Amino acid sequence: MIRAGETIENPVTGERVTFLKTSAETDGELVLIETTVAPDGSVAAEHLHPYQCERFEILEGEVEFKVGGRLLTAGPGDVVVVEPGTAHRFRNAGEEEVRFRCEVRPALTFESFLVTMFGLAADGKTGKGGLPNPFHLAVIMAEHFDLVRLPHVPAWVQRAGLALGAPVGRLLGYEPFYLPRRGPERQDLAA
Predict the structure, then answer these.
(1) What is the CATH number of domain 7-105?
(2) What is the per-residue pLDDT across 137-190, written as a single tens digit (0 to 9) for each?
(3) Exposed site from 132, 136, 137, 156, fewest CB < 10 Å?
(4) Are 27 and 112 in contact (CB under 8 A)?
(5) How many helices (H) and strands (E) does the chain have?
(6) What backbone phi and psi angles, to 5 degrees, belong to 138?
(7) Which long-range contacts (CB under 8 A, 24 or more apart) does 151-159 make?
(8) DSSP 108
(9) DSSP bridge partners of 56
(10) Measured between alpha carbons, how far is 27 from 15 in angstroms, rounded to an integer?
């Protein structure tokens, strides 16, 4: 189980996340993280959260967001709110590291998803964009379908693709949760 104060890093996307409040501490109400993003760093892919709201408060630097198809740049003191079901992505828009706080409501499986994706990247098991191979990704996404989805593909098409790809991925030995070489205990993550 992730604990407040723990930090995970994604060397591929340039993101570093420190957990300030965890799902366990808030009874699943929210997760609060502080994120830094290196120059040229960004979230791995544009995505949406069907049931979660994200609130980004910029602390340092300039962050470029694409929210619902609209580009905007936010700086220190700015707040960007992404409502459930809204396609979004972010990237460092400057030449210095950026820092922001992000509150995710409700927590759902957000923590274990981040630990999995960052762990795969940290252990060299993703491509240049920060995503694992398609069969491993299908296993992960089938587990986290209520957490995160592709923005421009209907949910039923995604479910159909995952229904085909995830069983193949499991046959190949992939699991929906991944622990980096150094990280929280596996049985706690799946909880």
Answers:
(1) 2.60.120.10
(2) 999 999 999 999 999 999 999 999 999 999 999 999 999 999 877 554 433 444
(3) 156
(4) no
(5) 4, 9
(6) -60, -40
(7) 151/46, 151/47, 151/48, 151/87, 151/88, 152/87, 155/50
(8) T
(9) 80, 102
(10) 26
Which among 5, 26, 189, 17 is positioned nearest to 102, based on CA atoms? Answer: 17
**CA gap 141, 132 in Å, rounded:** 11
Look at residues 121, 15, 107, 102 and name the one whose alpha carbon lies nearest to residue 55: 102
> Kindly report the CA angle at 50 between 44 and 54, in degrees rounded to 5?
65
| DSSP-derived secondary structure for 26-87 | TTTS-EEEEEEE-TT-B-SS-BB-SS-EEEEEEEES-EEEEETTEEEEE-TT-EEEE-TT--
The pair of structure tokens assigned to 78 is: 């700015």
d(CA 113, CA 142): 12
In which residue are the tokens 């499986």 written? 109
Whose CA is closest to 115, among 168, 37, 188?
188
Q: What is the pTM of this model?
A: 0.90
Instruction: Give backbone dihedrals phi and psi of 143, rounded to 5 degrees, phi first.
Output: -70, -35
Report pLDDT digits (tens) over 29-38: 999 999 999 9
Residue 137 identity: L
Q: Does an H or E element contain 135, and which?
A: helix 134-143
Residue 33 tokens read as 């993280």
